[in-house]
Amino acid sequence: MNTPAKFLPLMLSVVPFAAMARVPKKPLPLRPNVIVILADDLGYGDLECYGAKGVHTPCVDALAQSGIRFTNAHAMASTSTPSRYAMLTGEYAFRKQGTDVAAGNAGMIISPEQFTMADAFRQAGYATGAIGKWHLGLGAKTGEQDWNGIVSPSLEALGFDYHYIMAATADRVPCVFIENGRVANYDPSAPIEVSYKQNFEGEPTGRNNPELLYNLRSSHGHDMSIVNGIGRIGYMKGGGRALWRDEDIADSIASHAVSFITSHADSAFFLYLATNDVHVPRFPHHRFRGKSTMGLRGDAIAQFDWTVGRVIEVLDSLHLRDNTLIVLTSDNGPVVDDGYADRAEELLGNHRPAGPFRGMKYSSFEGGTAVPFIVSWPRQVQASQTCETLLSQIDLLRSMAALLRVAPPAGAAIDSRDMMGQMLGNRADGRDYVIEYASNHNISVRTPRWKYIPPCNGPKMIPWGPKIETGNLPEPQLYDMSMPWEHKNVASSHPDVVKKLQAVIDFEKSKTAEK
Ligand code: NG6
Ligand code: CA
To answer: Which CATH number covers residue 348?
Structure first.
């Protein structure tokens, strides 16, 4: 911490349980509005304030300038579904089956009984909303959603009063927004059918009709249904005017966020704002084309920055900025070619999406989970700070709950710790370790000094497309993180550290059995 610690406001003090039960419906004015802005596949090095080259991110940089830019914060996992699961439930994704990258017709992965971050806010009397990419399943059972009626259960069962979401990713069907459980702009003349098993009769696919991929061609996979001249994963029929246009997705998300904020200007609100940027297919609006030197991927970063700017602008105009706590982060590390021929790789120049780190999305190396993490709350947090405290998104749930004076029920959020003091810059004692979960299910552990990757057989490179190192090695790997690029394996000269860190992983795994 390079700035003096500030005084902890009284609101963080412990309140007796009896008082908690009487949480007023209208929250105390000191309680901030909270917006969690979660980017998709935005790497540690992808923002100008974290060293990006070839793209300007003035809105995010100003946000960082107004608060704290953390340099050692981690997503729990190096892909979306497990990372989001962990952040919203405070439970490591490896404790639950079915938390790998979800299909667009996956059933709801978080069960309605589970306590979520949104539940904490709801319990504290906040208006709660989720806007943007969801990717945690919908409905009771995989493949059995009624896309032409109400998809239920949906996010209201997880604590969100309002939700306007993409079921999975932009590269997965169904390619429609779903508002409070119903397809937005539903078109009765084009009933929707979705399958991840087989195509619908007469529907073209990227595989059979590559000539119809007029907007973006695939570099690997993404060869099933074609929507808006772009191949997707999964099969879909219908949709009509409800189908999204990829170039309008950021506008749709931003305008719904602005409406949500505006309509809750008079009461405390929590907004989970999960952008589609900068996930594939990267197809930003034309007004962002050419804004970077890196083609569509860089332009999508510029579009993400614009989204952040819209949010700040509306908060300013409603005089809400001062008492709004914004956390900006990303669900996992970056990826360059993730399956579409968008020239992201050849146009990179000297930009390093993962900053100083080895590995990217999917990987056990740091680039898989090291993410930007910015906290701003003008009323409470001193501006212009940079902080190297070790943090994990797993702690957001209990940190928010502490801020709200809400106690998660017994057995909930077992992996989350209250780190609100650290997130607000009042304490410098970070986590002793964070857990990192790669797409191959290997669980690594990072401490302020060390990174330990347990032995793992398997290919050195992701075998199905992206040119990314998995981090696999049949022997233990230990890196001294005073050198951020994990290259010198010192496991054999530090067997005691290896043993200790393997014990941390074994201990964490053993808690699943107890559950
Ligand atoms: C992969 C997709 C990739 C991306 C990823 C999930 C292919 C070839 N690749 O399977 O494009 O969608 O899944 O990304 O299909 S995540 O950020 O949502 O986890
Ligand atoms: Ca992601």
So the answer is: 3.40.720.10
Residues surrounding ion ligand 2 at CB below 5 Å: 40-41, 80, 331-332
- Cα–Cα dist 80/456, whole Å: 22
Query: Per the structure, how many domains does the chain have?
Result: 1
Pocket test for ligand 1, best of 38, 40, 79, 330 (most atoms within 8 A of CB): 79
* 338 alpha carbon – ligand 1 mean position (Å): 7
Asked whether residue 429 is assigned to any structural domain, the reply reads no
In a domain, 396, yes or no: yes
Output the pLDDT for position 21: 39
Give the residues surrounding ligand 1 with Cβ less than 6 Å away.
Answer: 40-41, 79-80, 101, 135, 169, 171, 220-222, 233, 279-280, 332, 338-339, 465
pLDDT for 192 equals 98
Nearest ligand (C-alpha, residue 39): 2
Query: Ligand 2 mean position to 79 CA, how many Å?
Result: 5
169 CA from centroid of ligand 1 (Å): 8
Whether 218 maps to a domain, the answer reads no
Task: Please state the three-class secondary structure of 355-417 as a single string.
Answer: CCCCCCCCCCCHHHCEEEEEEECCCCCCCCEEECCCEEHHHHHHHHHHHHCCCCCCCCCCCCC
* Residue ranges in the chain whose pLDDT is less than 50: 1-29
In the prediction, which pLDDT does 12 show? Answer: 34
pLDDT at 469: 98
In the chain, what's the furthest Cα-to-Cα distance?
A: 68
Atom of ligand 1 nearest to the CA of 221: 8
Task: List C-alpha distances in Å: 214 to 37, 210, 344.
Answer: 32, 8, 18
Q: Which domain holds residue 14?
A: 5-181+255-423
Q: Which residue owns the Cα nearest ligand 1 atom 15?
A: 221
Distances (CA, A) of 343 to 280, 293, 354: 12, 11, 18
Domain membership flag for residue 439: no
Per residue in 124-135, pLDDT (tens digit) is 999 999 999 999
pLDDT of amino acid 513: 79
SS (H, E, C) 90-137: CCCHHHCCCCCCCCCCCCCCCCCCCCCHHHHHHHCCCEEEEEEECCCC
